Amino acid sequence: MAGSPGRRAGVPESRGRPVNADTITAALRAAPRTLGEHAYHYTSVLGFGVTPTQGKRAYLPNWNSPENALRDPQSTQAHFERTNDNIGLVHAASGTATFDVDNEEYMRKLFAEFGRDWDKLKAQSPYRIRGQKGEKPLFLIPEGVTLRSHKLVITCPKTGKKVTVCELRTGQMQDLLPPSIHPITKEPYVWVNGPPRSRDDIPVLSGELLDLWLNWEAALPLMLAALGQTDVAPQAHVSRTPTESHEELGNESVIELFNTHHTPGEVLERNGYTRSGNHSWVFPDSTTGSAGVHLLPDSRPLRVYSHHQADPLCTEHGHDAFSVFTILEHGGNLHQAVKAAAQELGLPFMKKSNKPGEASHEGRPAGNHSEPRISKGTRALQLVLDKGEPWRDDAGQAYITVPGKGCLEHHRLSSRGAKDYVGDLFFDSEERMLGGPALSEVIDALSARARRSGQVYPTGQRVKHWQGKSYLDLGREDWLIVAVEDGDWHLVPAADCPVRFTRSPQMKALPLPERGGSLGQLSELLNTDRKGLILCTAFLLGALSARGPYPHLAFKGEQGVGKSTAASTLQRLIDPSTANRRRAPRKEQDLFIAARSSHVLSFDNLSSISADLSDSLCALSTGGAFATRTLHTNDEETVLQAMRPAILNGIADLLTRADLAERTLLVELQRIDASQRLTEQALEERFTDLHPQLLGALLTALAVGLQNLEQTHLERPPRLADFARLIVAAEPALPWEPGDFLQVYADMQEEAARVILEGDDLAQALRTFLDERRHWEGPINLLLNLLNEQEGLMAGYSRPAVDWPRNPRALGERLRRLAPPLSKTGYATTYMGRRKGGMHYRLQKVQV
Description:
Residues 39-209 form the DNA primase/polymerase bifunctional N-terminal domain. The chain is α+β, with helices and mostly antiparallel strands. It is globular. The chain contains 25 helices and 33 strands.
């Protein structure tokens, strides 16, 4: 019959050079291991032409032309050794074809109808590529035979959704070769029976499979009928050419026509927005009555931007008329919006069923370019909604939950993770990129749906305390979560956890915790005394509990005592991150942005802490917010909220301000004897060995602390009383005696107070003042004069320090800041209120 196989086809001279026996022998002697070695094997031994791909996308210009394929073994190996590219087999350059089966069940049913065994036919090629959905048998094309690519698509009778049964791939198409990484599963493609040892091992396409391929159009109606498809309209083949593009054909799309016939203002006003001037509108639920929606006059098509926080249009992007229509009238459902817009414009609407003869993956009915086109954004949104769930947290932030690698993943919709998922899902479905504007519209539509109709769930990053229980996200690919409850801890899958955890790109995985360890082993990783170990353990336990406010931890010590290593070690124990040694943030905004990436922040080698940074760290400890003007607005704010523990280290005394000192645990590291100093490698190996046990011991202590918390009461609660109460409640599981922590905590705060006072000229003057008088009460302006006179400033004998108060108001502010450390060292300052002569204070020397 026509097309019957002749002699086994080698690579034509135009497709590559002959393969000699020495090359084959060398390949048989050593199987390829690295990606580069595989590429060398494919080009030198098998005579393939290949192309590099990112995911499944080939990116070289005209990659599907045979002359543009990579063929030289040495340069091809070098390329794949130095990049993370996948290897794409260019069929037109290799004389190959694959039978790509997406649904083995349908294939068995199809061939059984004709009395054939699909599994036996598939086994004609022992070399099959296994990927996400099934196996692709690889064949050589018979010499003199020209094949086209085809695809068999049916409508599933149960779901009504389009299902690809199989695809015959050849010509100007490419398939990923092992060990390329699948972009969705992140698993490598594999050869079922190992890679072919030589080109002669690859079978030539023949027999019934070749007959089917050559007579596809005639066989198609029979195949559809065998699979229960009553509508057997012909399906177009999917062969592609280098010149094929995605240019718009026929009429304008529904979205373009809608934007042509409507302005954003028209759609706003029919949804209750009130015009304010020529280019602004007021949100219907506005409590201020001020215009929060503004026209962007230079945009094409015209777009509006909203900065009403409660407005569903309040996103990071402007909205054209159709986008406003989609969000306000259809809850962000693009599919419904396109249908409604088509009806409003008097246009026929393509149904989504994608039955044979209806809408193709291009968005138009096959063979009919006169129907309105469904945009990429619409198709991408429907793909995401079929798999994911948009939702929000109690603060109104929008998220989405999507299937991951055998588990569920949660992403903030404004994050790179969500955008990567949408783009990757669309590419996997249609093998084309989703452009930036379309991607932004999909994210906006999902955000609108999440805010307007999504469920509200608790969310956290790394840790979360919820309804009396603490949860820890281990950051693993299997999304296992540690639940701490009822005096114990255990592992749960993310699907069974009431908290939906999100992850930043900087987050790294924790090991599986192990039982039986002791927190006393922390001494093997830190060169500090017993008091320092108690404070470090307490810091870790407080940070792990997710029950803020949190204390910060500051390491001090001379150069070379391992402050940076100690800080990194503690952060890695509970919140490993690629950003584990940050420099000091220059602005408060930078601090709160960093808090969105990690639970524990570690700032390395600080020479000093400015007054502004000190105030910001105080706010971060107890829970604070940074507000800035929203982009493209004049009177709206974007607020960053966070409560996080931080680790600080430096040679100098960093805690020069009393308010930060009260919120910080100060630990001094000891000089390391040269005979006991470990190499970085040895310390890292010891950390790796101890990490699972230390994490398990911390979780056990936390479980005990949460169980005892309600029965634990402090007679004289210190600053950060909730933190101190948790540590006392956990002491039965901690490596010290009950009461030791409160004593160490008090001693540390008293020592920190002394350090602060010794470095403060005003504090020294006040102590001298009270050492002579023991008690004083009066107006603050008189106190300032007395202190100036005492220090010789009235007579000009000396110059005041830079931070010496110049007026009574400044003195009052300094007294309020110095009151805590003064009281810890026996000096009390009390504000008595405003009286005749101004603000009055009482100062006295007391017994500590």
